[in-house]
Amino acid sequence: MKVGCLGGGQLGRMLALAGHPLRLRFTFWDNNAEAPAGHLGKLMVGHYNDPAILQRFAKAVEVITFEFENVPVDSAYYLAQRHPLYPPARALEVSQDRLQEKILFRRLGIPTPDFLPIESRNDLTQGLRSMGLPAVLKTRRFGYDGKGQFVLRKRGDSARAWEALGGVPLLLEAFVPFRRELSVLAVRDRKGHHAFYPLVENLHREGILRRSLAPAPGLKPKLQALAERHAVRVLDELNYVGVLAIEFFEFRGKLLANEMAPRVHNSGHWTIEGAETSQFENHMRAVAGLPLGPTAATGHSAMFNLIGELPDTEAILRVPGAHLHIYGKRPGLKRKLGHVTVNFPTLASVQRAMKTLQPLAGL
Q: Is the residue at 140 inside a domain?
């Protein structure tokens, strides 16, 4: 089957690595001629609104997916009229606007932090009066890895926040003193069957995911079941096909939905070594109309992102049980260049390996 993938970054690369054994062949479309996935399939380079590339891309493929959510929605709908597009364009459209995302969650009965749309400086002033401090001001669109966000802790922060983010539609959210950040990875196939990976505990710094632990330590079946119920509502509402990630705050025994990603997700990289079927393989199975694979964790895993510059890779590989993934990207500030995973039968063994890996990964 000829698969078209919008985006050719590290997620596209890992999708192709999982898809090739399934006899899937890939054409990637990226605006970067050095896209990491480019050597694993054909690569078309140019802007995602380019009508000539849109036509060439559509002629070259049979089914289409994407590996990042900032694909122009108009292009997605154009392609969806010509080939199956999974996940659907509506999921892409909703996920691109944090306000619409929160409205969807609330409509489906999924709790979220309190939020208010912000269009003007006066909206911000009034919003802070009603919501109080601390609070988080976010751009509604094009925010990821901590970009487009400002935490307001005192009154004087509002002017600086508006100066930094004002001029585009914004969202004001109540600050949640959460116990921890969790994410669930869910997958739905073309026939509507669901599968779920165990909840993952995530550690962020400067808005960027640094470490994931799977399954989340101390995970109770009740919390896992709650996350799965929330995910099913979103999957079925959107007639979703593929992997969906939802990030939550665990707060007073509840899960508050923070945001969703309509694609394979950084917090699921551990599944390559740590689950019976990786998120990448299951995404491609769903997209290609194949049966889903089992999602159970095989023991306990920790995943560390390698940010900005690559560490001593030999030192990492000397850590027993370490699996290193390098993406082939140029070093750059806050840029994800790779990740390392360890997987052991017990959490205690994982924690021992973490003590060695954390300084190597910059933690």
A: yes
